[in-house]
Amino acid sequence: MSYEQFLEEKTKIDELLQQGYSIERVVENLDGAFLQFVRKARDGKMKTQTLHIQSADARKYFSVRVIQQLNNA
Questions:
Q1: DSSP conformation letters of the chain
Q2: pLDDT in tens, 33-66
């Protein structure tokens, strides 16, 4: 895994969080981690996005963001 891949995955995570999504679910396996993001749309429906995170550094990064999210709840 390259540093560029980490930056790309980190940017995707940050973009979704800035759009009002929160990390709802994490499923980890040997292929990486699948993050499910959820946010409430203007019409009241829930919107979801899923990211596949493969780099170890991005996996550490989203772990920190999950802890921050839990502390702010």
A1: --HHHHHHHHHHHHHHHHTT-EEEEEEEETTEEEEEEEEE-TTS-EEEEEEEE--HHHHHHHHHHHHHHHHH-
A2: 999 999 988 888 999 999 999 999 999 999 999 9
